[in-house]
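Title: Prediction job returns without error message
Component: structure pipeline
Severity: low
Priority: P3
Assignee: unassigned

Description:
Job completed but the reporter wants confirmation the result is attached to the right record. Sequence as submitted:
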Amino acid sequence: MQVNSILVPLDGSPLSELALPWASDLAERYGAQLILFRVGLLPDVWSLQDAPEMESRMDELESQCMKYLAEVQVKVTVPVKSEYAVGNATQRIVERSGQPDVSMIVMNSHGRDGLTRWMIGSVAEKVARHAACPVFLIRKPEA
């Protein structure tokens, strides 16, 4: 198996960043590049009155995502690039996994179970089921 690049989805939480050491180690072993990937979320509800402000909101969202990724990028010692998308996190990660430059995904699971998992779902589980490439999931550390 040839690993050229590793997609690392990050949601802005310290828990998601626990995937970085694993991804960096794999990147070093394979001589691969990391792709740090952040999906920004728009408000679920907005009205036509919000339409004139949407462009500035989109610009602000891009700025926030790229600022966060730049802060994370300095923690990584392997070749890295940062990307962001807007929309449903699961959908965007799965779409990105189908691009030819993605060899695998390394991500952390939030470890939700039971009712919480049923209500809000598990991004990691959905990505593992639908991604176009191998997915390496890291379990949430025990407290």
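Comment from assignee: result matches the submitted record. Confidence is low (pLDDT under 50) at residues 115-120.
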